[in-house]
Amino acid sequence: MSGAWLNSIPLSKRNAWRAGRSCRQLETDIATTVLLPHQVIPEVDWRTWVLLGGRGSGKTFAGAHWINTLARESGRTLALVGPALHDVREVMVEGPSGIKALAGSDRPRWEAGRKRLVWANDTVAYAFSAEDADSLRGPQFHAGWADEFCAWRNPETVLSNLRFGLRLGEMPRLMVTTTPRPMAALRRLLAQGGTVIDSGATQANARHLSPGFLAHLNELYGGTRLAAQELMGLIVETDGALFRAQDLAQARGARPASLDRIVVAVDPPATAHGDACGIVVVGRKDGRAYVLADRTVRGRSPDGWARVVAAVAKEFKAAQVMAEANQGGEMVRTLLAQAGCETAVKLVHARHGKRVRAEPVAALYEQGRVIHCDAFPALEEEMMALGSDAGGASPDRADALVWAINGLMLNGREGPRIRRL
User: Fold this and answer.
1) Residue 262 belongs to what H/E stretch?
2) Per-residue pLDDT tens listing for the chain (421 residues)
């Protein structure tokens, strides 16, 4: 949000603020006067608040508003993390929608030498660059604001170091503001427990932007994937992806008390060492599939991954182990028997490509007939890349999932086919 937000406030309120309104009074007025729905601090219990927004949607304003709210309590230690130190100071701290602009008469002072903001009540906010992940080792905080997460070079490393430092007070919290990108780190962040997700389009904040800004960009990019990402704040899936983020986000639920049938699907590695062996457990009940576990292993010998499969089948009392036979054929059955697998083994053969096998499974997700009984970020990452032209590692987890759901829900059919007469 640009500095024009202040000009949108009634003159009487603006004069009152300039006359010396306190931070608490200013925050209350902002909350009741100018906050957009996606900028309002969630009332539900949360550990991480992720605000996905288009360019100019007011993400910085929301983060600065939250930090100023926290600064009301004396003696707090806060973290401000941006793509670079320059971004922290020029955008998050001193920008037209930054912390100082929203602080009223309780404006903190910036200490450049120590890279920190200091309030009169001894609350301090330290600035960190995402370029230096190790600088977050050691310090501890009551809360943190991470800005433009998707622009960080090593987002997960920086974020994990920040999380380890959130250990002060009764409820340390993290706010993440970013324009989204279709990246694995963001998908994993959104899938974590205790995370509340809000989103806001640039259009929602149009009254605080240059009059011709949106019209010009819509003329140039309207209807494109770039517009969906940069103006609407949406996670744009990889070209050709079968599984959509919104379908996976809705596929959350509890495991039923009983299941009609449970299978363990295995996508064996192509080589003896190094490749992953996809191992996914799925159950069926009342016309729905329930994903119970992802026990995929990497770097195991044939005997090593076979023993894992045997143990998983026993743990879940599986009725069947489904193993792709394209890699190894009958050798797969022999390995499982030698590993002590007492569960019946069915070898399945891939007569068609991965996309053809996955299409009917993706349709079940769209229909809400597949439930994930736990968080499976690595599996879901592979699912959203399945069928795309993007490179990357072999989707071993996703392949195993497709085999399991095909076997349970579609009787092994790989989708409709056309026969030439």
Assistant:
1) strand 261-267
2) 334 444 445 445 545 544 545 545 555 555 545 787 788 888 878 999 999 888 878 899 999 999 999 998 999 999 999 999 999 999 999 998 899 988 877 889 999 999 999 999 999 999 999 999 999 999 999 999 999 999 998 999 999 999 999 999 999 999 999 988 878 788 888 878 888 888 887 777 777 677 777 677 766 666 665 666 677 666 666 555 778 777 787 899 999 999 999 999 999 987 665 568 999 999 999 999 999 999 999 888 999 999 999 999 999 999 999 998 876 667 889 999 999 999 999 998 877 777 788 888 988 998 899 999 998 888 887 887 776 544 445 688 999 999 999 999 987 444 433 333 3
Q: Do 63 and 92 form a contact (C-beta atoms < 8 A)?
A: yes
Per the CB < 8 A criterion, the answer to whether 262 and 281 are in contact is: yes
Same domain, 267 and 214: no
For residue 242, tell me if it sits in a domain. no
> CA 336 → CA 67, 96, 275, 305, distances in Å?
56, 64, 18, 9
Asked whether residue 295 falls in the same domain as residue 268, the answer is yes
Establish if 48 belongs to a structural domain. Answer: yes
Number of domains in the chain: 2
Residues 125, 178 within the same domain: yes
The string over 348-366, giving b where at least 16 C-beta atoms fall within 10 Å of a residue's C-beta and e elsewhere, is bebeeebeebbbbbbebbe
Six-digit token pair at 66? 């939250």
Same domain, 73 and 212: yes
Pairing of strands 261-267, 320-324: parallel
* Domain harbouring 260, CATH code: 3.30.420.320
Helix (H) or strand (E) holding 405: helix 396-409
Distances (CA, A) of 2 to 58, 83, 246, 351: 8, 20, 31, 57
Q: Are residues 261 and 139 in the same domain?
A: no
CA 237 – CA 230 distance, rounded (Å):
13
Residue 216 makes CB contacts below 8 A (sequence gap 6+) with: none
Residues 259 and 135 in one domain: no
Q: Note down the domain range covering 130.
A: 3-230
| DSSP string computed for 11-63 | HHHHHHHHTT--HHHHHHHHHHHT--GGGSPP-S--SEEEEEE-TTSSHHHHH
pTM, 2 dp: 0.55
Task: Kindly report the CATH number assigned to the domain that includes residue 78.
Answer: 3.40.50.300
